[in-house]
Design brief:
This protein has 178 residues and is mainly beta. The chain is 7% helix and 41% strand. Strands 2, 4, 5, 6, 7, 9, 10 and 11 form an eight-stranded mixed β-sheet that branches. A three-stranded antiparallel β-sheet has the order 1-3-8, with no helix packed on it.
């Protein structure tokens, strides 16, 4: 049941906030009661991903590529038991599931990807298991114009039987697109 709630939360968090900055007008009650007090609104908190003990990530891509290329993120599990990873599609990452990336143009630190455009994505989950002292690899394709780039990559999703929200970052890689 906890895993179902975690997957539902991931789905809700990945929906775009299309009009989040548009303020709606306040509507007063039709027959206000003199003794009515506004009800307190509970504070909503977004869960913060935790760091996993004995789990690391390695991002890899060919050093020189042209056009579309494959990017891989290997999650290494150095724990004593197998570890399941699951993640959904990200509306800011062109509906890719994992790895999530940020691409910077070398020398300028200009963010080339993600572009800031959001999409409505299907909600299926990608699940992979890393055996004890083993790894699980997530891959995706990217297409970039010619240039030199640094790619930052990470896994953000759920891990373990309890379905904890986690984030595992990797060292950036540099690529040259011809």
């Amino acid at each position: 049941m906890n895993k179902v709630l975690s997957l539902l939360l991931l789905g809700v968090l990945s929906l775009p906030a299309a009009h989040a900055q548009t303020a709606l007008p306040e509507i007063s009650p039709v027959n206000p009661s003199p003794s009515s007090q506004p009800l307190p609104v509970p504070a909503q908190t977004v869960p913060t991903p935790i760091l996993l003990d004995k789990v690391g990530a390695t991002l890899s891509a060919s050093r020189t590529v042209s056009g579309e290329f494959t990017l891989s993120l290997a999650l290494t599990n150095n724990q004593a038991a197998a570890l399941e990873f699951s993640t959904g599609r990200d509306s800011e990452q062109n509906c890719a599931a994992a790895p999530l990336v940020r691409v910077l143009q070398v020398g300028t630190r200009v963010v080339v990807y993600p572009t800031g455009d959001k999409r409505i994505c299907t909600q299926e989950q990608q699940m992979k298991t890393a055996p004890a002292s083993g790894s699980a690899t997530f891959t995706r394709t990217l297409t970039l114009p010619a240039g030199e780039y640094m790619i930052e990559g990470w896994f953000q999703g759920f891990a373990g039987k309890a379905g904890q929200l986690v984030k595992v970052s990797a060292q950036p890689v540099r690529i040259s697109v011809k």
